[in-house]
Amino acid sequence: MSNTTEQLQTETAAGGNEFLELFGGIGDHYGLIIGPYHVADLPFIFYDDGFHFYPTEKSMEEAGIFTMQEGKPVKASDQSSPALDLSVTNLVFFQWLAIILLFFLFRKVSKAYKKDPSSAPRGIQNMFEVLVSYVKDEIVIPNIPGKNASYRLLPYFLTLFFFILGMNLIGLIPGAHTATGSIGVTAALAVTAFIVINITSIKEAGLKNYFKHLLGGAPVGLSFIMVPIEVLSMFIKPFALTIRLFANMTAGHIVLLALLGLLFYFKTIIISPAIVGFSVFLYFLEFLVALIQAYIFTMLTAIFVGLAIGDHSSEEHQEQAAN
């Protein structure tokens, strides 16, 4: 009886370790990881008593200043983390890949327009025109008051939409990683949105109206209540953008890995047809989610910009802007 119990505990532990290995593949890594394979080393860059650059993990180990411990670089002397880690990680690589692909695609589309501006768009040119027109006509212009502001911010929103979409779609390639599944990436995108929202608000409504809005329309006597609430709401918006994109892009991958992990846990191929069927369905669902999340992040940012301009504006300022 005890032998059976021990065997069951051993098998359960083995299954749990396989689950942990699967879920560990979602996160960031030092080095280029494609699926379960370490394809290549990526540069290690640290700032700790000066800059340190190592092209590979081997060169870092040979230098003797830093070493790898449990998959993370630490100082060899006291096992503490570097003061500032600027290393090129797996998710950074896939962000760069998205940027490079978008650059060449847009370059190709741009050349096609320059070559024959009067011809009807075809192929990828037609797809990009549809997406650009949709972002402009359905997201930016309807939500941002003022023609000048909407057209001035259009390049930012186009970049935001296609960058998020590119990272999401690359993450659907078998073996690739979704950069938007990292909260650091989504937080950086949200911080840029926060800056754009507030700078646009100040530019369009004026600094006086910007600070006046912190009262929320309440009397000055209630400023000790209203100002903290309004300031807090300014930071809640980018926080919501961060968590929404990160959670949605991570959830689908976790469900897929959980389904695949059942094969290792039960150690039988009998359930494989059901798992494959559900996995294919979820894969196509993730493709839809990749599109929707790029749209939602861009749409919410445009709405927040529009609300900031509308809330801070005044008839006097609008008349001055018109003149």
The main sheet orders its strands as: 4-3-7
Classify the helix fraction into a percent range: 55-70%
Q: Structural class, from secondary structure content? A: mainly alpha
Mean pLDDT, rounded to whole units?
Answer: 82
Question: What's the number of helices?
Answer: 10
Q: Which descriptor suits the 3D outline?
A: globular
Q: Which stretches are low in confidence, meaning pLDDT under 50 for 5 or more residues running?
A: 1-16, 312-323
The helix-strand sequence is: HEEEEHEEEHHHHHHHH
By DSSP, the count of extended strands is 7
Distance between the termini: 90 Å
Largest sheet: 3 strands, antiparallel
Description:
The protein has 323 residues and is mostly helical. The protein has two domains: 43-87, no CATH class; 90-322, no CATH class. It has helices at residues 2-24, 57-63, 90-115, 124-143, 147-170, 183-205, 207-212, 223-266, 272-312, 315-322; strands spanning 32-34, 37-40, 44-47, 51-54, 66-69, 72-75, 84-85. It is globular and about 60 Å long.
Short description:
It contains ten helices and seven strands. With 323 residues, the protein is mainly alpha-helical.
SSE layout:
Layout: H1 2-24, E1 32-34, E2 37-40, E3 44-47, E4 51-54, H2 57-63, E5 66-69, E6 72-75, E7 84-85, H3 90-115, H4 124-143, H5 147-170, H6 183-205, H7 207-212, H8 223-266, H9 272-312, H10 315-322
Antiparallel strand pairs: 1-2, 3-4, 3-7, 5-6
Helix pairs in contact: 1-8, 3-5, 4-5, 4-9, 5-9, 6-8, 6-9, 8-9
